[in-house]
Amino acid sequence: MAAGGDWGDNVTENMAVMAPPGLVAIHSNMPATLTPEISKALNIGGPAPTGFSPEEQHAWDQLDYFWKHRLGYAIEMANRPQTLYGIMDSPIGLAAWMIDHDTRSEELIERVFNGQTEGLSKDDILDNITMYWLSKTAISSARLYYEDKRAFFDIRGIQIPVAISAFPDEIYQAPRSWAEKAFPKLIHYNKLEKGGHFAAWEQPKVYTEEIRASFSSFRN
Q1: Which residues pair with 191 in a beta bridge?
Q2: CA distance 169 to 148
Q3: How far apart are CA 71 and CA 69, in angstroms?
Q4: Distance CA 19, CA 13 (A)
Q5: At 162, phi and psi to the nearest 5?
């Protein structure tokens, strides 16, 4: 069994495509469920395909906003990762780069500095930035985007069992209908009330409960 979100999903789903012996199921909170029609429309900035349900329209709106307004960081790392060397000269620059991800993640990170206590603590955020700063891995980590040419959200043809946790503040909250089409052996789907792109970090209790529920049928 394996689980992933963000780059973890990319790795996990590609493992599932290879289906090595012993990998019996996977879990994702950022699943790849986009049909060629949806993916093409997003990439060309076109209108939404017709016939969406309200849940599907919400997912499209999230993706369309991300593609048009928040994808810049990924495009920069995918094309010119070495030009980001400036963030290695300043911990403040590194912090600004890391926090400026997608709109909802930025808001969920900001809230603790505005006196709220939900989710991450100040130490959580500073520890994460410090790890990259002290290990000098800000630039090398960006090369993932340059070296991987697979589309993040396009359907991969996975045939082993898949569990999905759909968090509301993820880049997009994958609808059940899309998940069922993308994963013919969908064994678990749950829409959560809170949690975003970094759900395992931000909402560890909820995430752990989801992992246990996802793989409960495989436990002896």
Answers
A1: 166
A2: 25
A3: 6
A4: 9
A5: -135, 140
